[in-house]
Each structure stands twice: as structure tokens, then as C-alpha cells.
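Session log. Operator J.P. requested a structure for one protein chain; no other inputs attached. Running the standard single-chain path with C-alpha cell output.
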Amino acid sequence: MAEEATQPPRRSGLRGPAGYGARRRPAIKRLLPRTLFGRSLMIIVTPMLLMQAIATFYFFDTHWDEMTKRLAEGVAGEVRFLISESRDLPPAERRALFSQASRTMSLLVSFEPDGALGEVPEVFDFENLAGQITSALDERLSQPFTVTTNVAEEWVVVRILLEDGVLEVVVPRRRLFSSTSRVFILWLLGSGFVLLTVAIVFMRNQIRPIRRLAIAADGLGKGRDVPSLKPEGAQEVRQAARAFLIMQERIQRQITQRTEMLAGVSHDLRTPLTRMKLQLAILGDNPETEELRADVTDMERMIEGYLAFARGEGAEPPAPTDLQTLLGDVVAAARREGATIDFRMDSRPLILSLRPQAVRRCLANLLSNARRHADHIQVTAGLDEDTAVIVIDDDGPGIPEEQLEDVFRPFFRLDRSRNKETGGTGLGLTIARDVARGHGGDIALSRSPQGGLRCVIRLPV
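Structure written below.
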């Protein structure tokens, strides 16, 4: 099989013919979470974030700016008072005034005779203290001044140019900045974190039963044994779980009844057929008995086909299976029966949870149909996102487009004559699709580029 382990089929060849492939989601939907947990969390978190954003905007636009403005106006008024009171005072009295301002106003005031303002470096000022104090001083002072906020962490320096020097006023930040703003921000962040944590814990507990129910339903749909599901969670989820358990019990009961009935039918039909075969053996060989033997053989073959369809996949448990090995064995068996097959598959192992015998029978039925009606068959297999895709192309007569779905119906045959040389009982494709759907996949038919029929089998990884 070394020559068979070549490149996998192109995705365009796997997706297009059968109309498969995920459609592109709109841009907005691609940004939204796809899980119920993510969407539920978004429903809770989005209004909370919006509310906090509005509250923060309102706080900074009204309370923050208004409070900072009033504090700056108070400091600007005190600076103007110091300038007016210290004018024309002797140095000793001026120092006394500055000392009193330090005790009563928490301002550090000094005077530099013949000093200069200098340049103020531009720095990022989140609280906009410099802008607020500058605006307040502009309204009250006619002298040039500078405001520096990066001298020390807890101080703001204001320098005013007077006629005989520079008056320097060092203002504590607490005179211009309210600590309640930090408390408000921390409260918003803290409350948001607490609410988010509670929402995550609550939503996980609410979604866990839904996830278990989904897993159980998926397992039941694939014919797997579903462990006992305990109804839990919200009332609606409990109701859905109880309905699922009732449905599971009914399905299992119907399957058991059908299997038991078919086992009885099989026994009842085989007994007269065996007697007929014995009587034909006693009668000897003649043209009449040869025709009866052929009819008995056809009846046995039809009964086996009916029972195989009714049994479905049986009780075979799923097991990790190398699809490359399984498909290679089926192709080799078809080649031994005379089929001309070109097999191409990715050389990498592809392990899937399959019922090996059921999948083997599904692929064998499809290759048998192709071998019966075509001279050349091409089998390609590969991985398309999270799905294993097997494509079977042939150069036979194909199937009319209006009958591509009809051939999957039980006992439907394109040849109405029921001639065993032109087909079987009409259950091969039905059994194949049941096996594929029992694994969570599907089978679709379309026109092949080789002129015949294309069969696309998709199995989830």
C-alpha cells in the first residue's frame, strides 16, 4: 500500500460535490461566543459593563470634574490672598505670613528675590490637576505663573512671577484631589469582579446538566450505551432530561421487540426452507428441481438481506479504529473480487471511534455497488476540519439526479425486475447510510467527474 499513501484529496473536491462544508458566518456572529455558557455569560456581563461605563462616565463628567474644580478654585483664592497680603511687606513679616499659611492652609510658601519662572516639562496628568489649577489661577491672577505636577508624588508646585521676584507655593495633592475617586474606581472593579465570579460559578452549574443531556443524546443517536442520566438543574432542564429518559426507554424497548420478532421470523422461515432443500435433494437432479433450488437460494439471500437491515449495527461496541487500515482492508478485499480501484489516502494515521465491522460492511456495500456497475473506481480519503471524508468515484452509468435520494429507501431498486444479476435486494445503500448516520455522519450521492456516481461518506473525528 506504499503507493496508496499519497496526498489527501483537496478540500474543494471533498466539500463541493455533495454540498457540504460550513457556510461562512456573518462577521457579527463570528465575534459572538458559540457556546451556551459563553452567550449566557455575555448576557449577564454586557449589561453590567454597560452600567459601570455609564456610571463611570457620569461620575467623571460631574462629580470628579466639579469637585476638582472647586478645590482648585479654593487653592487659587488662597494664592491670590497670599500675593495681595505679602506685597510691600518687610522680609520678616512676609516669612511670618508664609509660616501662618503653612499652619492654617497646608501650603508651603517661599519667595525668591529676582527669580525666574523657568520651563515646565510636559507630563501625562491623569487627574488633570494642572489644567484645573491653571484655569482657576487664570481667573484670579494677572501675573505670569507656571504649574508643575511632577516635582514630587504628593505635591503640586505653583510659581508666580511678581515685580521683585518669584513666589513659590507648594500645594499638597490632597488639596486638589479627592481620594473618594480612587475608592469609587476600586469599588467598580471589585464589584464587577465579584459579580463576574458569581455569574461564572452560577452559569457553570446551570449549564452542566444541559451539557450532560447533550452528550447523552449524541451518544444515543450514535447507538452507544448511555449511562444513567440523573435529572438535575433548573425545572426546564429536569423536564427535558426526564423526557429524554422516557424516549430512550421507548427506543430501546422497540429495538428489543423488533430484534426478538425478527429472530422468531428468521427461525420460522428457515425451518420450511430447510425442509424444501431436503425434499429437493431427495427428488434428484432435473430441470424442475434446478429452478426450485435457484428460487430457494434467492429466498435465503433475501432473508439474509432483510435480517441484516433489521439488525442494524447490533451490539458491536465502538472502539478506536485506524481508518486507513480499515479502508485499506476493504479496498484489498474488493480488488480480490475483481474490482479495479485507485486508492489514495493521507499517510498519517487517522484514529476514529468506530464500530469496525459495521463500517467495514458499509464501505463494502458501496464498493460492491460501484464494482457491479463500473469498470474503474477511485477511492480518496482525508481530513476536512474535524471530519473524516471518504470519496468513492466510478465511471459507471450513474444515477438520475431525481433518484439520488430514492436509492437510500429500503428495498428501492433502479431495476424493477428484481433480477439478481443487476442488483441485490435494494438494502445495500440503506444499510450503508444507517451505519454512517449511526456514527454521527452521513452519506450523499452526486455526479462524479469520471462520469458515473460520486459517493461522499463523512464521519466525525
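Operator note: Confidence is low (pLDDT under 50) at residues 1-22.
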